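Hello forum,

I keep getting stuck at the same step: I have a sequence, I want structure tokens, and every attempt I make locally crashes halfway through. Rather than fight my setup again tonight, could one of you with a working pipeline run this one for me? It's a single chain of 204 residues.
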Amino acid sequence: MAAITTIIFDLGGVLIDWNPKYVFNETYFESEEKREYFFNHICTSDWNEEQDAGRSIVEATEELITKFPDWEESIRDFYGRWTEMLNGPIHDTVEIFRQLKESSKYKTYALTNWQAGLFDIALVRYNFLHWFDGRVVSGEEKTRKPFPEFYNILLDRYNVKEEESLFIDDNVRNVKAAEELGIKSIHFQSPEQLLEELKNYKVL
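Reply #2:
Ran it on my machine without issues. Output:
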């Protein structure tokens, strides 16, 4: 097995606690059924990922309001209150990242599904996003995980070898896509679990 030289991080759910339910919480809608309908049929994960891949959030919002006019306020809140969905760094994972950087043994990169303009907000808020040796942001590249071309942008741009890389993501779909490209991967579930798996790989 080739030695690991490169660590690739997902951001949301791994290093940054982002969740729409910080806005659309238990008291936002009149019932849990209404909240479930909103996420399952209106502002869905698939819809959000279209913006991650470069679609304008203004265009996406207005088209959805045309389709679901009775839900206008909630649709506007999805991006209008987007910063409230950021609950800050996942500090224990950031500390793991710090240890990896300070060891000077590895190159570190970010591979993230994130709308380009909204990612700028995160860059201003979180200094650790500037620790990476490079970043690949879906909204800037007009493609996203789990599509192989998105992973290959990072591999090609930074001359990264698949067999020497370790990818960390909280979405099992994205982990499987990386593994199909020959990239060793960890399905992130908690900082404690990540630390144990990194020890198993003899990274830390």
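Residues 52 and 115 are 4 Å apart (CA to CA). If your local run keeps crashing, start a new thread with the error log.
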